[in-house]
Amino acid sequence: MTCMDTVVDIRAADIGERERKGGIGQFFTSSMVADFMASMFGPLPQTVRILDAGAGYGMLTTAFVARCCAAGDVRAIEATLYEIDGQVLDVLNAAMRDCGRLCAASNIRFSFTIHATDFIHEMSTRLTEGLFGSAPPVFDAAIVNPPYRKIGVDSRERKSLHAAGIDTGNLYTAFIALIYRLLAPDGQLVAITPRSFCNGPYFRSFRKDILKRMELRRIHVFESRRAAFREDNVLQENIIFHAAKGNRQPHEIIISASSGKEGGEITQAVLPFAEVVHPEDAEKFIRIPSAVDHAAARETLSGLGESLASLGITVSTGPVVDFRFRESLRRKPEPGTAPLLYPCHFNGGTVCWPKLDARKPNAIVDNAKTRSWLVPSGTYLLTKRFSAKEERRRLVACVFDPGRVKAEWVGFENHLNYFHENGGGLEPALAAGLFAFLNSTVVDQYFRGFSGHTQVNATDLRALPYPGRNTLQTIGRELPAFDLAQNEIDQIVGRHIHAG
Ligand SMILES: C[S@@+](CC[C@H](N)C(=O)[O-])C[C@H]1O[C@@H](n2cnc3c(N)ncnc32)[C@H](O)[C@@H]1O
Hints:
The chain is α/β, with parallel strands linked by helices. It has 16 helices and 20 strands. The protein has helices at 15-23, 31-39, 59-71, 89-105, 119-129, 156-163, 171-181, 204-213, 273-276, 291-302, 308-311, 428-438, 441-450, 458-463, 469-478, 486-497; strands at 47-53, 76-82, 109-115, 139-144, 183-194, 214-222, 238-245, 252-258, 266-272, 314-317, 329-330, 337-341, 346-347, 350-351, 363-365, 375-376, 380-384, 397-400, 409-412, 416-420. The chain has a nine-stranded mixed beta sheet. A five-stranded mixed beta sheet has the order 11-15-12-19-16, with no helix packed on it. The protein has a four-stranded antiparallel beta sheet with strand order 10-20-17-18. The structure holds S-adenosylmethionine.
């Protein structure tokens, strides 16, 4: 994918003009960003009622119309535009007439209404009056680059917003909060806004409100702070988001990023929604991980020459499905049993066994029926198949050291994957090297970049690129312990895999 550049002022801007613009939050979107925003919409109804609030020169509606004409999936577009600045209305009118011509050539009916009024005041009033006033309009789609500026506690805007049940201190969040109240169920919003609402106490109530009413589908970030408004010299970090009206957040969300330079590449990753907004977070911070990191991780790992198969190592899912062996399971180890390991035995990079206070059994009877499901003791590398949502890393690996758990045979339960060589243990330095590699941030980011699931299957682990055996052994020998901090693991792994 390519695209995206900057938001530019299409008029020459002298100092006076700049000040005037600042007052009403007037920064215009370039056609390139507008096209990109229009491309983010999902399927649309046959007749689309589109809202462009704070329309400026109509760049966004123009891009939306061009997208519909190219896609050929709608029959009619009814555009509603709000713009308070009298000086831009002629150009806005002309732009909408151009849209009409474009639609006519594509057999799409097009109509438009420009309201030269204050969007905040008008919509807050209509939403407040409800049944007793003029009912607020309903839209299927909205595309917006709202003005932004703080709105004081005693301002007229703040008071009318408050009456409509909206409590927010910036024009841009006020626009967005009004817009999604006007959307039909499933109605879509694509907005370019400052990133500031994603965290901080100032926007807490806005975040709660939007996450209650809108399903966030995609967030696009500009890597460079100045990228999106470079020409206007605005120091704001901007994002574009796509959301749909509804109250069930998706399981996965797309995070994409671009440099903001013309023709620059767009990187993207699919992540569990719970990683972006933690379900237990009372602040409802919207944490946008860097899609750029995912791309960098992909590049680093694609430089590694080995696969598990070429290393002669196999990864398998733990063969002991516990409910099939119910009568052979034992809470405590006893003579004639073998250790049985579950994810609950993972402890600081190694195995802590037995865990008598755990809900899981610690042992399995070693007899003719169970023996073929056990493995001979040795050094194994274990990973969890299901990582808990709150776990920082998707991939969680630990080393099974036969020196710490004395036994001839061991059982690995089905919620684990284990790395082995021909069904037996690994050479200890190799296991330690794999431990560091699989627990490194770069592998975690690589993983997240292609999988939105929190599940790590043996097939996923087989598909990973790996460093060579010598590199893994060197990493393993350099590891001073297993209970290292993340940055210590990353430093050791980074020294070897970035150096090629
Ligand atoms: C950031 S500019 C974006 C313009 C245009 N949508 C674009 O993307 O190029 C915001 C626009 O909102 C207009 N505006 C500011 N406050 C407004 C209000 N209360 N009601 C309607 N329009 C407003 C400004 O005049 C400006 O044209």
